Amino acid sequence: TFNGPDPLADDDLDGLPAFLEHALGSDDGDPNDGPGLISAQRDGNSLVFTFQRHLFAHDVHYEVEVSRDLITWSPEASLLSETGNHDGTSLVTYTSDLPVDTETTLFMRLRTTMVLPLP
Fold first, then answer.
1. What are phi and psi of 109, to 5 degrees?
2. Which of 33, 50, 51, 115 shows its CA 20 to 30 Å from the CA of 85?
3. Helix or strand or coil: residue 43?
């Protein structure tokens, strides 16, 4: 479980809060460890979103959300794959359920929420 004093702290000043680094399985004491663990790219008429997940972070709920305007977000994304990294993390890939064309802007984000772990 998350054991930091402040989930919003950013001790390594890499722009990622401590709780998000916990969820990603990165080190909030190393500014080079967290950035790059979340990415998005266009694949034909869809957007593909990938992130690293900490397999033993049982206090984290992960949601991938999609938006056309950065104001209204929806869960219109589908899991494509999850592959283990042999280090206690996995690489998770989602695709948007909303189509993308040359005139459409689409955004995806990872929302992590702290939950009570199962006993």
1. -145, 160
2. 115
3. strand
